[in-house]
Amino acid sequence: MSMIAAFYGGKAILITGATGFMGKVLMEKLFRTSPDLKVVYILVRPKQGQTLQQRVFQILDSKLFEKVKEVCPNVHEKIRAISADLNQNDFAISKEDMKELLSHTNIIFHCAATVRFDDHLRHAVQLNVTATQQLLLMASQMPKLEAFIHISTAFSNCNLKHIDEVVYPCPVEPKKIIDSMEWLDDAIIDEITPKLIGDWPNTYTYTKALGEVVVQQEGGNLNIAIIRPSIMGATWQEPFPGWVDNLNGPSGLIIAAGKGFLRSIRATPMAVADLIPADTVVNLTLAVGWYTAVHRPKSTLVYHCTSGNLNPCNWGKMGLQVLATFEKIPFERAFRRPNADFTTNNITTHYWNAVSHRAPAIIYDFYLRLTGRKPRMTKLMNRLLRTLSMLEYFVNRSWEWSTYNTEMLMSELSPEDQRVFNFDVRQLNWLEYIENYVLGVKKYLLKEDMAGIPEAKQHLKRLRNIHYLFNTALFLIAWRLLIARSQVARNVWFFIVSFCYKFLSYFRASSTLNV
Ligand SMILES: CCCCCCCCCCCCCCCCCCCCCCCCCCCCCC(=O)SCCNC(=O)CCNC(=O)[C@H](O)C(C)(C)COP(=O)(O)OP(=O)(O)OC[C@H]1O[C@@H](n2cnc3c(N)ncnc32)[C@H](O)[C@@H]1OP(=O)(O)O
Ligand SMILES: NC(=O)C1=CN([C@@H]2O[C@H](COP(=O)(O)OP(=O)(O)OC[C@H]3O[C@@H](n4cnc5c(N)ncnc54)[C@H](OP(=O)(O)O)[C@@H]3O)[C@@H](O)[C@H]2O)C=CC1
């Protein structure tokens, strides 16, 4: 019997960010392994015209929860969606709901965050720092609370090269930042943002670092742990391989490459691609929840959930495997044949951006205009280039994360728990994982049917022929223009033609003699 699964039985668990990528995988695993848990409170905001209940039903109706419905048929009764907005005071939770949360909650998993790299500092601070502070305040009023698990990111200290499992201080105290956000206007915040974030690449990583400091400073007597996943990718094994539901991290780029939009990316092929499957993160999170509640470590432990030091893969290997998978499992209606490459300096990046990204987009938009349709490719390409420029920082560097606490925890688990809550990335086969990832992107993000693969392959063949035709025509035109203008080119041309003619004559003569 799994000790961790048994631990969550009968518990009241509060999850923030349950409607996000990690939150869904976390809920799924909790219900599948501990169907006898008491209740899962989720803080949800109404969104895109959907009520809370509609949002919950949409999650439960997805393929991700198919297995859960078998082992826990009354799952919908055990989820208690609480209307909350983490941007508001007291999260805008009603008095009755707050009372219930405070008196019942046993474990908190705080996953909610803004993960946008370009978010305005005020908003990023509100969600990643102030909301964490407020949640800690709530937690301190929960008499039955056993553990508070805060999800951060391995990149919260990406301004360092070697990162230990400790909370690093920030140059400006989080409290001062929170205070200043209250009275500074947006224009001034915009002006001081680069100075405040210093050598962090964006407001996301900076505010996640501030969030950790808040957790450490304001955790009081709570049993707290911090988990730092690196780049969360599709699921590895559970509940099935390849599940993914948003465009963050590599997923958006896999689509862009598979559809033929992405032709080049400024990345260092040998840099470590520190991806970590979402189910691995969730298994570690649940194990940490159990360990923190049962063993009550004296200080706040930080756990790195990374792959680089135990089972490294680099961007070169990853990129090649992604491209190889497109050969077997192409995406439908590609714009061009998938054929991306890495560039390593600014000049080649600008060159390929102009030739391979912008020029085809302009030509295609011209074609759309000619045929009476609305041009859209240039806009899409500009967005892609903006995304690439934001991700560049992370694909041109390698970091070393120590994993002592994570390895210690692994050794504390029973063999059964090591199997059920496996977070040992040494067992991960990258090539297989990446293939399943691409397949998952096709099925769950693009919602494409496997039956469409033969047609997708045909489409790619047509694109290849168009590509060859286009290149040949382009070459002939360029050559014709060159011949018209340059005596040297004319001489070369006559030399080639006479050489071919002589070769053919010789070949014909010798084959006649043979007869
Ligand atoms: C040795 C020899 C070697 C040879 C090798 C040859 C091989 C060739 C290589 C081939 C390449 C093949 C494929 C590539 C696969 C691997 C490439 C790897 C790159 C991976 C990089 C990962 C880096 C991640 C770093 C993570 C660090 C921190 C991790 C975390 O803690 S948190 C999670 C990370 N957060 C994010 O990822 C969020 C990023 N997103 C944003 O910040 C924003 O969305 C934005 C990118 C700034 C865009 O903002 P906008 O306002 O412009 O847009 P909006 O968000 O409103 O969306 C608009 C539309 O765009 C879509 N979209 C959103 N995000 C993405 C995305 N990431 N990619 C693509 N598209 C995206 C969105 O859906 C909207 O679409 P619409 O609804 O249709 O309008
Ligand atoms: N994805 C990754 O690669 C990595 C993620 N992480 C961390 O993991 C955690 C989960 O990330 P992930 O699941 O990918 O993120 P998502 O963007 O998928 O999910 C974010 C969640 O936060 C919720 N949320 C955002 N704003 C509010 C608000 N104002 N009120 C209530 N809820 C809100 C969202 O709700 P809604 O659905 O309503 O928008 C959503 O449920 C984050 O803390 C992130 O920093 C760490 C490393 C890597």
Descriptive report:
Helix 14 (346-370) runs antiparallel to helix 15 (377-395). The model has no long low-confidence stretch (mean pLDDT 95). The strands form four sheets. This protein has a seven-stranded parallel β-sheet, with helices on both faces. The protein folds into three domains: 3-229 and 274-310, NAD(P)-binding Rossmann-like Domain (Rossmann fold, 3-Layer(aba) Sandwich), CATH 3.40.50; 240-271 and 313-398 and 429-448, no CATH class; 456-514. By secondary structure, it is of the alpha/beta class. It is built from 20 helices and 13 strands. The termini are far apart. It has helices spanning 3-8, 21-33, 52-60, 66-71, 75-78, 95-104, 121-139, 174-183, 186-197, 203-218, 250-258, 278-295, 315-328, 346-370, 377-395, 404-412, 415-420, 430-445, 453-485, 487-514, and strands at 12-16, 39-44, 79-83, 107-110, 147-151, 162-163, 224-229, 231-233, 264-266, 275-277, 301-305, 341-343, 400-401. Ligand LAMNML6D binds next to helix 11, helix 13, strand 12 and helix 15. NADPH dihydro-nicotinamide-adenine-dinucleotide phosphate (NDP) is lined by residues 17-23, 43, 45, 47, 84-87, 111-115, 127, 151, 153, 208, 229, 231-232, 246, 248-249. It is an enzyme of class 1 (oxidoreductase). Residues 357-448 form the Fatty acyl-CoA reductase C-terminal domain. It comes from Bos mutus grunniens. This is Fatty acyl-CoA reductase.
Q: Can you count the helices?
A: 20
CATH-scheme architecture of the largest domain: 3-Layer(aba) Sandwich
What is the assigned CATH homologous superfamily of the largest domain? NAD(P)-binding Rossmann-like Domain
| Low-confidence spans | none
- Overall number of domains: 3
Oligomer state equals single chain
CATH fold group of the largest domain? Rossmann fold
Shape: elongated
Range of strand content: 5-15%
In the sheet with the most strands, the strands line up as: 3-2-1-4-5-7-11
Ligand inventory: ligand LAMNML6D, NADPH dihydro-nicotinamide-adenine-dinucleotide phosphate
Question: Helices and strands: which structural class?
Answer: alpha/beta
- CATH C-level name of the largest domain: Alpha Beta
Radius of gyration using CA atoms only: 28 Å
Strand segment count: 13
Sheet with the most strands? 7 strands, parallel
Helix share of residues? Answer: 40-55%
Q: What integer is the average pLDDT?
A: 95
Straight-line N-to-C gap: 84 Å
